[in-house]
Design goal:
Blueprint: H1 12-15, E1 20-24, E2 27-30, E3 35-38, H2 41-44, H3 53-64, H4 77-91, E4 99-102, H5 107-122, E5 127-130, H6 139-144, H7 148-151, E6 161-164, H8 176-185, E7 196-199, E8 202-203, E9 209-210, H9 213-225, E10 229-233, E11 257-260, E12 273-276, H10 296-309, H11 317-334, H12 337-340, E13 344-348, E14 351-355, H13 364-373, E15 376-377, E16 379-381, E17 387-390, H14 398-417
Parallel strand pairs: 3-15, 5-6, 5-7, 7-10, 10-11
Antiparallel strand pairs: 1-2, 2-3, 4-12, 8-9, 11-12, 13-14, 14-17, 16-17
The structure holds pyridoxal-5'-phosphate.
The site of pyridoxal-5'-phosphate has 15 residues, from helix 5.
Length: 422
């Protein structure tokens, strides 16, 4: 399919080369009538699937009522509905008292705002980030993103961050807390005291690495002791993806700042927020500004999905089902021949990675391409695209989850047997 107009920078369209014309729930349709089970979920933006019917109705009603659609941060009925739903369904049931900052519409906008606020609050510059981290590609976020591939896209100094090894990585497990203590508690260590520690509790783009709960608790305690802000980037792992609304709930910790984007918009609609502990909400009015800070349609959709899926408490029916589906994915991947040959299965909730780096002659990229030919959209992640990432809509039917796994495991088996080009 020749693409002469769009920039070379395009990416997902290269991996999944068809023209998509429609999508519903967990299935996309191509222009030639082909259908594809979705294990990508718009890179995590579609936790509730494509075009959920009840949300679509709300959006149509809102448009027909001539509700505001522009993005200035005016107070609108749509924004109030979202804030009320977020308070009722997410914050209050978890005893959380965060303020909500609306920033620009994408994930990196939220990370930029969080980093800026942490520096403003502490008067310090340095931020600790981690190997394998992905936080976006605008300059401030890119300084915290670890991948050399993305970092090489900017020919200027990416300053103000120190990267430490994440507790798990392609090089194996690591005692990150020990190194952090040595850097911060030794006045002769040569590292500036950080304003913040920024992390994904489950790394997505880096290869689906899960931070242990003990590490998260120790990190929280360490940050408290040194008046360092703890920022959790829950842009990919949040909104139910890891089997709870926030990915850090399993550790019982409360970050100082939280970034959310991707699925918070409810319908794949762009929206990003920073959640701020009230004592750190020291912004002056308009100090961090922007034209598009209030995507009204995203507010409408977000309020609708929060009320539909999250009204029955932190361990309600929806997340319980997500955890069950996640266990099934882990079971099926874990039983594959690839695992007997050294592949690793990592993940939480419905966010799973199958790391093929130790399996000779099997390329995750080729497995993804062959899956696409067989009607499954599944992407790769990791340092060098060596991990198959299973990230279906959280609402995926048991039948399509099972059928998608059948395709993936069959393609893998052929690759292992050497009966395909994978
Ligand atoms: N943070 C995390 C954890 C992400 O996974 C991403 C995107 O994949 C981002 C930040 C950046 O979000 P965006 O691509 O919307 O700028």
């Amino acid at each position: 399919m020749p693409q002469t107009t769009e920039s070379e920078v395009r990416s997902y369209s290269r991996s999944f080369p068809t023209i998509f014309t429609a999508a519903k729930g967990d299935v996309l349709r191509g222009h030639d009538g082909s259908t594809y089970i979705d294990f990508l979920a718009g890179a995590g933006t579609l936790n509730y699937g494509h075009n959920p019917e009840t949300v679509k109705r709300r959006l149509i009603d809102y448009l027909e009522s001539d509700g505001l659609t522009h993005g200035l941060d005016l107070t609108t009925s749509a924004k109030l509905e979202f804030l009320n739903a977020f308070t009722d369904c997410v914050l209050e049931p978890r005893g959380l008292g965060y303020r909500v900052q609306f920033c620009g519409p994408t994930g990196t906008n939220a990370v930029e705002a969080a980093l800026k606020l942490a520096r403003l609050v502490t008067g310090r510059t340095n931020v600790i980030a981690f190997s394998g981290a992905f936080h976006g590609v605008s300059t401030g976020s890119l300084a915290a993103t670890a991948s050399n591939y993305y970092r090489s896209g900017l020919h200027t100094t990416l300053g103000g961050t120190t990267h430490l090894p994440y507790p798990d990585s392609p090089l194996g497990e690591y005692d990150t807390m020990d190194l952090l203590r040595r850097l911060v508690e030794d006045p002769g260590a040569g590292t500036a005291k950080p304003a913040a520690v920024l992390l994904e509790t489950v790394q997505g783009e880096g290869g689906v690495y899960v931070a242990p709960t003990d590490f998260l608790r120790e990190l929280r305690e360490f940050c408290d002791r040194h008046q360092i802000l703890l920022i959790v980037d829950d842009i990919q792992a949040g909104c139910g993806r890891t089997g709870s609304f926030f990915s850090f709930e399993r550790a019982g910790i409360e970050p100082d700042l939280i970034t959310l984007s991707k699925s918070i918009g409810g319908y794949g609609l762009p929206m990003a927020v920073v959640l701020i502990k009230p004592q750190y909400d020291i912004w002056r009015p308009g100090q961090h500004n922007g034209t598009f800070r209030g995507n009204q349609l995203a507010f409408v959709a977000a309020a609708a999905v929060l009320r539909e899926y999250w009204a029955d408490g932190p361990d309600g029916a929806f997340v319980t089902a997500v955890r069950g589906k996640g266990r099934e994915v882990a079971r099926r991947l874990g039983a594959s021949t690839a695992v007997q040959l050294g592949a690793r299965v990592r993940g939480l909730g419905l966010m799973w990675g199958l790391d093929l780096s130790a399996v000779p002659d099997v390329s995750a990229g080729k497995v993804s391409h062959l899956c696409f030919d067989r009607g499954l959209i599944v992407e790769t992640c990791g340092r060098d695209g060596e991990v198959i990432k299973v990230l279906p809509p959280l609402t995926i039917s048991d039948e399509n989850l099972s059928q998608g796994l059948d395709i993936l495991l069959d393609v893998l088996q052929c690759a292992v047997d050497g009966t395909s080009a994978a």
